[in-house]
Design brief:
single chain; alpha/beta; Serine Threonine Protein Phosphatase 5, Tetratricopeptide repeat; Rossmann fold; 3 domains; seven-stranded mixed beta sheet; two-stranded antiparallel ribbon; 64% helix; 9% strand; elongated
Length: 573
């Protein structure tokens, strides 16, 4: 078959979307005509259509060397350079195209898009306007300009005239408030990549159960979508589908090796699936791409904490904290890691805690840790405890299960079932309520953490939930309630002086736990963890002032650093 016939056949296949077949013929032609600019350009366009823009650029550069006066080749080069995250080179390619042929409206429009991405608004507007001077009816430029200038009426008018104009619909969805945008797109749910991707983004907020489906549609429409790959990877992580998640993230990185979200998502997946060494490498790659991300510093710190590199972990947590001082998760991570470092190197931990407190004197976490590591109390201990459990709430029961927590069940085994009113101090997520709820019980839960109370409410075991300090509640209401039982599971470890609370609870039946101190501690000892250990003998002596029957039940409260934490359950009547 002659060259011309081969070329025509390949072009027809190319236009029909049969890229593999077209590419095979183009390569066949290149074997005999390696410098053919048209074929080199078409090879670039195939790579461009596949989203492989670095490869496309190589073809376009080869083509431009063979046909240096072709404006179209430089236009194609500009498009792929921009998509390969090389905006400055893209501008140069588009300007070269304009120099060679100044009446191609599309060149000005796409050049404006590059300037827009760089935040150079004046240059973007100028080039949109140049495109419109060449063709005042050029709708793409008109829509782009309106969206840049946030000209909603113009876009709405375009949609009224043409309800199928996907580009105008998409940009309106970007300008509308998110709730209106979601409703608007549901009315214009076209099987178009940009629309499906935008629906997926909005559905994450307004209909999370539908978001994954939209992202999958977007990926089906554009197999080279980095964003769709990343979002589907995130859903796979939520389902612990590690192999699928890895495949999606790695494909996103292959399509865009400098994509921060892809590296961050892949790093998180590796961390959660237990591949910590690989996760470290990915997080470090993400840090290089976006050193200002507090989340990445925090996540990298979590891995280093897991492998007991506490000093470097603290450096990363403090870096995250310095960038976002409102996020309590970072502060909790600092506090936990300082505690762990204290057991390795007390002096270094104290020094770091003191410096944190000095620089942030009003921060309850900094205050608490500085005091705790020095065996002192802090005025902000109650605020610290409240914030700690607010942040702990989402994973509270999972963590308790992992550390072998079983106090609610032990309490119920000791007291048996209770008919009447039970007051549950420090009710947390409601595990005491689950253990004690019967048709004959009336349970009141009291806790400082609003988030914990929300979880307790979901269990439908409590007849009343109160957000208040337990001592204040005890003084105000116990005498009128006259409870059949008061419970305080793993609560007294957050208070040094227990006598006021014990006195307020008497004479009503009370069951509570303490963390057991060694015999050389007379009353209580503040641990670096921020919890108190109490001397059982001292507690028994206090209780004897207010109760006649006091039973003690030794127990294991939990596992901590692989060791049993010993405690005592007191049951008083």
């Amino acid at each position: 078959m002659g060259y011309d016939l081969l070329f025509q056949q390949a072009v027809k296949l190319h236009e029909a979307g049969e890229l593999d077949k077209a590419e095979n013929i183009y390569r066949q032609i290149l074997e005999t005509a390696p410098d053919n600019a048209d074929i080199l350009n078409l090879m670039g366009m195939i790579a461009q259509a596949r989203g492989i823009h670095d490869q496309a650029c190589n073809w376009f550069y080869k083509a431009s060397r063979q046909a240096p006066s072709s404006a179209h080749i430089y236009f194609n080069l500009g498009l792929s350079l921009f998509n390969d995250n090389k905006p400055i080179e893209a501008i140069a390619a588009y300007q070269k195209s304009i120099t060679l042929q100044s009446d191609i409206k599309e060149t000005y429009n796409y050049l404006a898009e590059v300037y827009r991405a760089l935040g150079e608004t004046e240059n973007a507007i100028s080039n949109y306007q140049k495109a419109l001077r060449l063709d005042p009816q050029y709708l793409d430029a008109k829509i782009n300009l309106a969206s840049l200038q946030k000209d909603i009426p113009t876009l709405e008018e375009i949609v009224r005239r043409d309800s199928d104009n996907v580009m105008a619909i998409y940009y309106l969805s970007r300008l509308y408030p998110d709730d209106k945008a979601y409703s608007f797109l549901l009315e214009h749910d076209f099987p178009v990549y940009d629309i499906q991707l935008r629906l997926g983004e909005l559905a994450l907020t307004f209909a999370p159960q539908k978001a994954e489906n939209y992202f999958q549609k977007a990926l089906d429409l554009n197999p080279y979508s980095v964003s769709a790959h990343i979002n589907l990877g995130n859903f796979a992580v939520q389902k612990q589908e590690w192999q699928r998640a890895e495949k999606l993230y790695k494909r996103a990185i292959e399509l865009d090796k400098n994509n921060f979200e892809a590296h961050a998502g892949y790093a998180q997946m590796l961390h959660l699936s237990g591949r910590k060494a690989e996760a470290l490498d990915e997080y470090r790659a993400a840090v290089i791409l976006n050193p200002d991300s507090p989340e990445i510093s925090n996540n990298l710190g979590l891995i280093l904490k897991d492998i007991q590199d506490y000093t470097e972990a603290l450096g990363l947590f403090f870096n995250a904290f310095s960038k976002d001082k409102t996020k309590e998760e970072y502060q909790i991570n600092i506090a936990e890691t300082l505690t762990l470092l204290y057991y390795q190197n007390p002096d270094e931990a104290k020094k770091i805690a003191a410096n944190w407190h000095k620089q942030n004197p009003d921060n309850p976490f900094a205050n608490h840790m500085n005091a705790a590591l020095n065996g002192e109390t802090s005025e902000t201990d109650q605020v610290y405890t409240q914030k700690l459990f607010d942040n702990f709430a989402d994973n509270y029961e999972l963590v308790l299960a992992n550390i072998g927590y079983r106090l609610p069940r032990e309490f119920r085994e000791i007291t048996g079932s209770v008919e009447g009113t039970i007051v549950d101090f420090g009710c947390g997520s409601g595990l005491i309520g689950v253990a004690y709820k019967t048709a004959f019980s009336n349970i009141i839960g009291v806790d400082l953490s609003e988030k914990m109370l929300a979880f307790a409410e979901e269990k439908n075991c409590y007849d009343r939930l109160v957000r208040e300090d337990i001592f204040d509640f005890a003084q105000r209401e116990l005498s009128s309630i006259r409870p059949k039982l008061i419970t305080a599971a793993d609560v007294c470890c957050y208070t040094e002086e227990l006598e006021p609370l014990l006195k307020a609870c008497a004479p009503y039946p009370l069951i509570f736990s303490i963390e057991q101190a060694s015999d050389d501690i007379k009353k209580a000892k503040l641990l670096p963890t921020g919890r108190y250990q109490h001397n059982p003998q001292y507690i028994a002596e206090l209780l004897a002032k207010y109760y006649t029957t006091i039973d003690q039940h030794p127990t294991i409260l939990r596992k901590e650093n692989g060791e049993d934490v010993k405690g005592i359950i007191f049951y008083c009547r």
